[in-house]
Amino acid sequence: MNTTSLRTAAAAIAFALLPGAAGAADLLSQQCVACHAIAKPEKASLERILERKGPDLYYAGAKFNQEWLVAWLQNPTTIRAGGAMFVHAVKPGADRSVDTIDAAKVAPHPKLSAADAKAAAELLMALKPEGLVTAGAHKGEPGGSMASMLFSKLRGCTSCHAAKPGDPPLSGPELYSAGARLQPDFMLAYMKDPQRFDPHTWMPTLGLTDADMQKLTSYLSTLKNQEKK
Question: Closest Cα partner for 215 from 193, 183, 188?
Fold first, then answer.
C-alpha cells in the first residue's frame, strides 16, 4: 500500500471514531471510489483517464475549500458540463459546424444528506499528498486589471472554461465559482504544471511567469458566483 493509501485509511479510521461519523469511511471507500480515485493511481494511462467517471480526489484536501465542499455535496451543481471526460458527451451542433455537449449523457452527482456531506468532506480534506501543492505559494496580492485581461483575452482561458453562469458549455470546468471552490495554492500549482497532477490532462502548460500566475490566481480567487438550480 502506498503512502497516500495509508493516509487515506488512517484518516478514515480516525474520523470514524468521532461522534456522528458512523458510516463515513464506508461512504468514501465504497461509494466514492466507484467514480473517483481517492488514492493516487499506481499507473497513469490515457485509457484510465478516458474511462474514469469522475475527477481524481486523492489530492482533494489540497484542492477544495471545505465549506464549499460540504455545501456542494448536499446540492451538486454542474462544474464540468461534459463530465469527467467531455469527449463522451460531445454531439454535433445544430448547424454541424460547431460541436456542443449533450447534457443528457452526463450523469448527475448524487446528493448527500447534511451529515454524510460533512463526514465525506472531513475525510476528503485529509487527502493531501506531500509535495504536490506548496502551502503559502500564493502571496495573496491583488491581481489588478491585468489579471482579468490575462484570463479573458491574453491567455485564452475562456476557450475552455466558462467565466460566468449561462456561458455556453465548454470542455473544462467552470471557473466562475473558483474562488469559493478552490484553494489559491492549488490553483497556482495546477496552473504552473497541470501534468504533475495528471500526465494526460487536456490543460496545457501555459508557460506563464510567476508574476502572471500570481495575478491570475488572485483574480480567480475573487470569482465566487455559484450556479443556482
Answer: 188
Model confidence, pTM:
0.83
DSSP conformation letters of 106-118: SPPPPP--HHHHH
Q: Which three cell numbers stand for residue 223?
A: 470569482
Summarize pLDDT for 42-51 with one digit per residue, the tens: 888 888 888 8
- CB burial of 207-219 (b: ≥16 within 10 Å; e: otherwise) equals ebeeebbbbbbbb
Q: How many angstroms separate the Cα of 99 from the Cα of each of 84, 103, 173? A: 17, 13, 17
Domains along the sequence of the chain with CATH: 3-76+111-124 (no CATH), 144-220 (1.10.760.10)
pLDDT greater than 80 at residue 17: no
Positive/negative CA dihedral, 125, 130, 136, 140: negative
